[in-house]
Amino acid sequence: MTGSPHALLGLRALLTIGVLASAALQAAPATVPVSLSAGASFKECAECPTMVVVPAGSFAMGFDGGEEGRYEGPVRQVTITRTFAAGQFEVTQAEYRAFVTASGHVGGQGCNVLRTNPARLERDATLSWQNPGYGRPPRDDEPVACISWNDAQAYVAWLRQRTGQPYRLLSEAEWEYAARAGSAAAFPWGNKPDEACRHGNVYDTSGARAGFPAVAAQCDDGFEQIAPVGRFQANRFGLHDLVGNVWEWVEDCYQMPYGAGPVDGSAQRTVGCDRHGSRGGGWRSDISRQRPSFRGRDPAELLSAVFGLRVARDLQR
Asked: What is this structure's pTM?
């Protein structure tokens, strides 16, 4: 190529602008038509979670009781006036890996795991979401674990940037409403804990063989530890695994007992913000902790082998 140095510099600048413009076009979020019909599902990018539209409605939130120091009430009436979308499944290893690869996010290192013989909870500095301590590599379709609340917030922020849409964590009220799916019973399927194994990967007779010090459901779901997402039947809203598998971080700060509000389904972000809520129990949790009203409470930086996330997305009418 011949020409003056200024002409060559100008050509290179034009080529650089063209490459950047092409990359920007490739990264621009695509608009995906979203139905607001309850039960409709959508996915806004190849690496995004599948979302399900949850209908508006009212329910009695909480339980007038609970473990010592973990009161789950007082019971209050919550009315969610707008439809919203919730992840059909917990966020998977593959979905979270796509986020880390694209964003360069660096989470905390180490993970709290429960050991046996003797039973003890300890932090293992060698573990992370890429190796949550299963004794084998995690599968792409298993829920990501060893995720802190801070990591969960980074993930939904990336989804917002990736799609241009209002992704976030579920509020405590939305989570309990979605998990109950119209049921007022102790568990989403009724009042009998031993019927859990058709509905989620809970601590049961197969899990009990590992020797963890927890109260097991007297049924067998076929998984001694974590299970791939979607292996158990969906609830009436079309959502899977709200009970069991991994605890799911929610948006709220932890306030006990519940305060006067909010009662519109939004998150409580002003009281008790040294800890954040988590819901749903895990594959090695007492079966009583896998009731929709049970409330976890942990620091934002906690990394545990049974903590993951599910996402939400606001919808416009």
From this structure: 0.89
